[in-house]
Amino acid sequence: MAGFIDTSEFRNGLKIEIDGEPFVIEYFQHVKPGKGSAFVRTKIRSLLSGRMLEPTMKSGDKVGVPDIEQKDMEFLYASGDEYHFMEKKSYEQTFITAAALGESKNFLKENTQVEVLYWNGKAISVTLPNSVDLKVIKCDPGVRGDTVSGALKPATLETGYSINVPLFINEGDVLKIDTREGGKYLTRVSSAG
């Protein structure tokens, strides 16, 4: 642990340590009731397991600052349950399990640039770019004249992940996918035809 931080310094995205486990603050709210002392409601996500907790802390409580380091790395390949990454400068390699990556693994293709998060010297998670370009490998063909506004169909991307896309998307198209909102379709980058 690299010190302590007061609840008055909380902000979204801040990494904290509680009971020897690193968390990231997803949401917080300072509450000053008419009676009683002020407190802070929080939603925090474990950086190890991904589980969400909603602890309430007294105003002025202190929590730990985790010993965290971020390194710019490149995704190399997946081997079974392990996803391998390499630091570009030192060629140092590490891996993260599929369980630790969670939803992030759905958007990783070879040579994707990511930030790998290290806690106590061990790689525990990745921060993806806000969007990635992925190729559609399987989807039903669009039917000419089918112009229902807002209609969607399923498409399988090159990583094996399925998302809903507009009817005009075809196999071979390259799509820009938002990695922050669970793989939401943004736009078509290039057409297969």
UniProtKB/TrEMBL annotation:
- Is Protein biosynthesis among this UniProt entry's keywords? yes
Recorded GO cellular component terms are:
cytosol
| Signal sequence extent | none
Name its GO BP terms in alphabetical order: peptide biosynthetic process
Keywords per UniProt: Cytoplasm, Elongation factor, Protein biosynthesis
What residues does the Elongation factor P C-terminal domain cover? Answer: 132-188
Regarding protein family, the annotation reads: Belongs to the elongation factor P family.
- Protein name as catalogued: Elongation factor P
Q: Give the organism, scientific name.
A: Corallococcus sicarius
Query: Source organism lineage?
Result: Bacteria, Pseudomonadati, Myxococcota, Myxococcia, Myxococcales
Its gene name is efp
